[in-house]
């Protein structure tokens, strides 16, 4: 009957989707983001516990993370560009998860034998172990994996289709926001109801399982999307838009239309939701940066993002009192307005480019 046929069709479509590259990327990204959010929340709490219930080590932690990406972002991006996609993804995944695992083991030992460790070297062993954990934090930071998967892989997976690319970007952002809310709640409940040692063990177990699942899923995506293995050499400069134009030529289309940006609508949406602006910038980078330079450009962008993070931490430190909050709000608005203005100028420049005829 028609009803049974539709049911079978829906089941078959669902199975195809579940085995497809998009779903595998979503699951892999969700596991990675969840573990990352749990760890960054938990490590801040752990450092407060270890250093006499003050924020010194937590502040150093934020400074180390931001400073490391600021200094190494471009180098990480260049490394992503120069190596095969599967090796970059696997190496980044392995380093990230193993670093968290080792750090979790160290913290479990510190919390289990805290009094004994504090007596060794007049407490300097605790400081040494904390410094070691901070070093591991640098190693586990997922900048390389984020650049590789979210800035490069999904562009290839979507076949350079703008609509599909926008959809994947939006879905990845939704996953990011959901994990940003739920992951700290989950690990916080474990730490509250059990103990810090159990919390470390929970994160350790999650990362080991996540490592295996993500490795399998990313390997499968690499196999079922042949285009991922065809990485252009460094001297080949062909952007997303150029490839799109080539496809239009091959389909017999004689008139090429440049990108159209409804600047006023975009700026209006930015006022209501900064995330939409971030998605717009992300897709602009994906579309306009040539494939052989995506890593280094996105690495520099990550560095600039963390530079702004450093500035905002410095401003908060400089004006920590509640009565100064209004000043910080005004400064934030000025930064947002500056970003909007720069985007407006960019979009205006793009719209003024002459149409290309073939």
TrEMBL record:
<dbReference type="Pfam" id="PF06963">
    <property type="entry name" value="FPN1"/>
</dbReference>
<feature type="transmembrane region" description="Helical">
    <location>
        <begin position="120"/>
        <end position="138"/>
    </location>
</feature>
<keyword id="KW-0813">Transport</keyword>
<feature type="transmembrane region" description="Helical">
    <location>
        <begin position="23"/>
        <end position="48"/>
    </location>
</feature>
<keyword id="KW-0812">Transmembrane</keyword>
<comment type="similarity">
    <text>Belongs to the ferroportin (FP) (TC 2.A.100) family. SLC40A subfamily.</text>
</comment>
<comment type="function">
    <text>May be involved in iron transport and iron homeostasis.</text>
</comment>
<dbReference type="InterPro" id="IPR036259">
    <property type="entry name" value="MFS_trans_sf"/>
</dbReference>
<feature type="transmembrane region" description="Helical">
    <location>
        <begin position="193"/>
        <end position="218"/>
    </location>
</feature>
<protein>
    <recommendedName>
        <fullName>Solute carrier family 40 member</fullName>
    </recommendedName>
</protein>
<feature type="transmembrane region" description="Helical">
    <location>
        <begin position="88"/>
        <end position="113"/>
    </location>
</feature>
<dbReference type="GO" id="GO:0016020">
    <property type="term" value="C:membrane"/>
</dbReference>
<keyword id="KW-1133">Transmembrane helix</keyword>
<feature type="transmembrane region" description="Helical">
    <location>
        <begin position="55"/>
        <end position="76"/>
    </location>
</feature>
<dbReference type="InterPro" id="IPR009716">
    <property type="entry name" value="Ferroportin-1"/>
</dbReference>
<keyword id="KW-0406">Ion transport</keyword>
<feature type="transmembrane region" description="Helical">
    <location>
        <begin position="325"/>
        <end position="346"/>
    </location>
</feature>
<keyword id="KW-0472">Membrane</keyword>
<dbReference type="GO" id="GO:0005381">
    <property type="term" value="F:iron ion transmembrane transporter activity"/>
</dbReference>
